[in-house]
Amino acid sequence: MAEKNPYKNNPSTEFTDIDELDKSQAKKQIEKLRDAIEYHNYLYYIKNKPVIADDRFDKLFRRLQDLEEHFPEFESPNSPTRRVGAAPVDELKKVEHTSPMLSLDSALEEEKLENWDDFVKRNTGRKKIDYVVEPKLDGLSVEVVYENGAFQYGSTRGDGQVGEDISENLRTIKTLPLQLRGNHDVPSFLAVRGEVLMSRQGFQKLNKFRIEHGKDPFANPRNAAAGIVRQLDSKNVADKPLEIFFYDILTSEGNGFSSHWNVLETFPEWGLKTNPYNKKASDFKEIEKYHDELAENRDNLDYEIDGIVIKVDDYGLRQQLGTRQRNPRWAMAWKFQPKKQVTDLVDIVVQVGRTGMLTPVALLDPVNVGGVTVSRATLHNEDEVRKKDVRPGDKVRIVRAGDVIPEVVERVNEGKEKRAREFRMPKKCPVCGTKIVREGAYYFCPAGLSCEAQLIGRIIHYVSRDAMDIRNLGDKIVRQLVERGMVKDLADLYHLSVDDILQLEGFAQKSAKQLHDAIQGAKNPRLDTFLYALGIRHVGEHIARVLAREFGDLKSIRTAGYDDLIAIQEIGPEIAQTVSEFFQTKENQKIIDRLLKAGVEVQELKSQKKKTLDGRTFVFTGELDEFSRSEAKEIVESLGGRSTSSVSGNTDYVVAGENPGSKLDAARENDVQVIDENAFKKLIGR
């Protein structure tokens, strides 16, 4: 008879000092703790019937961690402590599936499902078919493999034949058992199929954190789950709100199952979580009722579903029906109609931009708008939120402004008596805690680069294509550098070594060397490019060129005062104020000095003595042979002219290349002179 495990029922958390244990005693206690912790996880996550308090569970878990640290020879990849994440990997390895992971044929129309039901009956010779109906989970499909009940590895679906090894990330999901329960009935080899999901509540909480820290939010819970599970560092997965439902056997040695329902009943006994909405259906009317009930209830679930799955229950009939190349003939997905453009406003969070401006953002229950899944929308500023009177919990109508930017149009009045409190901008920056200031309708965090969100945004802007153009340095890498404390201002970029870059997720020796060389190669910017890259408020590419053209070198701009700036044509009071304040701020002066000390040499822009295009405005349309659009604009501006994107009565010339667009018609309507590329070359003296 097996010895009773003292840590399962009413466990004591008084332990012998670890130093007093010999190896044999330590090994025995480690094994019992692992077994007990898996048992309590099973009761908590699968059965929803915990038998011990959370603090007692935590003490058992910490004891196991301490024992494994003191006795590393007893480490196991399937220990519950591995759920906190393992060392990061360089890349996800490819894994061939034990059996093809097929996709499902699907339909929106009821008629197609009825035709499929008739097909099943005709080809099996049965007048009555027993089906299993399940929610069509909208997550990441995975294969999970067990040998002798122990978790071996897991992989993504990939192309159905080969997926990516995500074993270490799957270990962190608490609803995935690392050791199957049961005794003789557990197959010696078992490959099961499951769906990794993120809860709606967890999704909104995660997006709130990402937005407040200047990161792009995930589009929907499915994308969030897929993106997180495929990360190279499993420590970044361990604290995320993921769970997994199992719904099929891919491969098994000697399972003896004759029906799918029998499998779904057995899974929980092994510790594999199944969906509580799985049901049996004996005719199409029951299937239709199930579909309609779930469609009506889908918004009340804590995870996304986009339809139902209908499967023939009897395995013998499945074999009779067979499979096509990519999908089985014995199963169909009945999709729900796409959501309308009205959705729930879950929360209003505040995003901090690179200039320190605070913008309220609506977190939405994901909704399809014009073929794009929208999970957030801008609310512009506090006045706009009040004007539209939208609050968390409201139904709102969404559009994509200009068919691109999601925007909350209005609140859909449901006649609720009780609504959430009216939105107010925070008094402190949600990222760094600095007291915010108001300028007109907008609020700003004055902390500058000491605010992590502004620092990340400023660096992303600095390295962008139109600024310093540092290739291979994307947003995710910038965030890693800042969050790990490796870059605290712009100048720190130039002090990164190849070894420093190798510490980042996803880098090998070659790619680290390439990024290092790209950073070191970005040390000789033109003056206008450097000014734009600094991210000064109100200074876009055009104003940067105006400043560079007027002052010629960085030193002159750094010492220019408000009066010097306001005297320049095209520089108004607001720009003059922000530019002079930027260069007078001690922190900005230090950063520029550090950039110069790091080897950045800003190229002077020689002043054009002859401003042959002074005061003239140009618009370009079509393709030019000898100039890119940006080159042509730079030439015009260097000669005192201005290049704009739209035609008006103030436009002097429209330069038309090959395949001109609607601007040519606008020129004729406004009686603006149209010239070709040769005439343009004469005007600029070429």
How many DSSP helices? Answer: 23
Oligomer: single chain
Major sheet attributes: 7 strands, antiparallel
Query: Share of helix among residues?
Result: 25-40%
Backbone CA Rg: 31 Å
Helix/strand-derived category reads alpha+beta
Q: How many domains, in number, for the residues?
A: 6
Classified by CATH, the class of the largest domain is Alpha Beta
Structural description of this entry:
It is built from 23 helices and 22 strands. Strands 12, 13, 14, 15, 16, 17 and 18 form a seven-stranded antiparallel sheet that branches. The protein is of the alpha+beta class. The mean pLDDT is 87. Helix content is 34%, strand content 20%. The relative contact order is 0.07. Helix 1 packs antiparallel against helix 2, helix 11 crosses helix 12 and helix 15 packs across helix 16. The protein folds into six domains: 58 residues, Helix Hairpins (Orthogonal Bundle), CATH 1.10.287.610; 230 residues, D-amino Acid Aminotransferase, Chain A, domain 1, CATH 3.30.470.30; 95 residues, OB fold (Dihydrolipoamide Acetyltransferase, E2P) (Beta Barrel); 73 residues, 5' to 3' exonuclease, C-terminal subdomain (DNA polymerase, domain 1, Orthogonal Bundle); 71 residues, DNA polymerase, domain 1, CATH 1.10.150; 67 residues, BRCT domain (Rossmann fold), CATH 3.40.50.10190.
